[in-house]
Amino acid sequence: MSISWNWVLILAGAALILIEVAAGGFAGFDMVLIGSAFVVGGAVGLFFHGLYLGMIVSGVLCALYIVVGRRWVRAHFDLKGASAVTSNTDSVLGAKGLVLLRIAPHSPGRVRVNQEEWRAVLAEGVRSPLEAGTEITVTGLDGVTLQVR
């Protein structure tokens, strides 16, 4: 029984893709694209009945990805959470909202900011209470409690 190396390329490429997907993208999408290059090279080799053609196509696609494609993928996709992702609490800083339940010194209240209801306290330096219906600005946060003025 002879081994068709084009099928080995296809199976190895599929294995790389599955490992990357199963591991949750630990290699930053590299194994998916290199595995895809193996699959494409193996398929071209099978279609044209050429072992060397399949190997050359796989090699060229892998080299192209490593030299050019990898830089492009890393620049266009946040694969490892490298860019600053605004969390829900960070996104409310500076936002305007509406008092739902009176806020007084030493007495937290409730506010609605960005269609969400939050617990709120008066920001440092604010002495007078804020009544229901008053427009507020979020100046800070402590845990999940907004500081408003």
Outline the structure in words:
The chain is an alpha+beta fold. The chain has two domains: 5-76, no CATH class; 88-148, Nucleic acid-binding proteins (OB fold (Dihydrolipoamide Acetyltransferase, E2P)). It is 44% helix and 20% strand. The chain has four helices and five strands; from the N terminus they run ααααβββββ. The chain has a five-stranded mixed barrel. β2 and β3 (116-122) form a beta hairpin. The longest helix is centred in the middle third of the chain and has 26 residues, at 51-76. It is rod-shaped, with a radius of gyration of 28 Å. The N and C termini lie far apart (80 Å).
Report the major sheet: 5 strands, mixed, barrel
Strand order of the largest sheet: 1-2-3-5-4
The tally of helices reads 4
The percent of residues in helical segments reads 40-55%
Structure characteristics:
4 helices, 149 residues, OB fold (Dihydrolipoamide Acetyltransferase, E2P), 5 strands, alpha+beta
Q: Would you summarize the structure shown here?
A:
44% of the residues lie in helices and 20% in strands.
Topology:
Layout: H1 5-22, H2 30-47, H3 51-76, H4 88-91, E1 96-101, E2 109-113, E3 116-122, E4 135-142, E5 145-148
Parallel strand pairs: 3-5
Antiparallel strand pairs: 1-2, 1-4, 2-3, 4-5
